[in-house]
TrEMBL record:
This is NUDIX hydrolase. PROSITE patterns: NUDIX (PS51462), NUDIX_BOX (PS00893). Gene3D superfamilies: Nucleoside Triphosphate Pyrophosphohydrolase. One of its GO terms (molecular function) is hydrolase activity. Pfam families: NUDIX. It comes from the Bacteria. InterPro entries: Nudix_hydrolase, NUDIX_hydrolase-like_dom_sf, NUDIX_hydrolase_CS, NUDIX_hydrolase_dom. Belongs to the Nudix hydrolase family. Keywords: Hydrolase. Residues 7-130 form the Nudix hydrolase domain.
């Protein structure tokens, strides 16, 4: 690595829908994006796989146990390289925790009214994973 080069921070996010097609979102309680709505997720810790990180972050932020399936897409936001995975709920009870100020299922109309993190709607739309309800 030369002068000015920087390492991107690997992060993951979970794209999770309920049976009605509503998307699971959290309100960020910390920066970056404090107060904005986004997908649950966070940094991949040393020695973790992406799937392990998604499972941990989803449990910490939403109380739900999930099974990550396929990679939906990848975005770069500042120093963060975020890999978003589709997830299926395997148990747990929805509640906001860790660095999530709130967690909820939203339909397409609610999603359109939320203050969301920059680029989220565009990425989900491009990947075909906007709320269906």
């Amino acid at each position: 690595m030369g002068p000015g080069d920087h390492q991107l921070v690997r992060c993951v996010g979970g794209i999770t829908f309920d049976r009605a097609g509503r998307l699971l979102v959290i309100r960020r309680a910390r920066d970056p994006g404090r107060g904005l709505w986004s997908l649950p997720g966070g940094r991949v810790e040393r020695g973790e796989t992406d799937h392990e990180a998604v499972i941990r972050e989803m449990r910490e932020e939403t109380g739900l146990r999930v099974v990550p399936t396929i990679l939906a897409g990848r975005v770069i936001r500042g120093p963060y390289e975020i890999y978003d995975y589709l997830c299926e709920v395997g148990g747990g009870t929805l509640r906001a925790g860790d660095d999530a100020g709130d967690a909820r299922w939203v339909d397409a109309g609610e999603f359109a009214r939320l203050e969301i993190t920059e680029g989220l709607a565009e990425a989900l739309g491009e990947w075909g994973h906007l709320p269906r309800a």
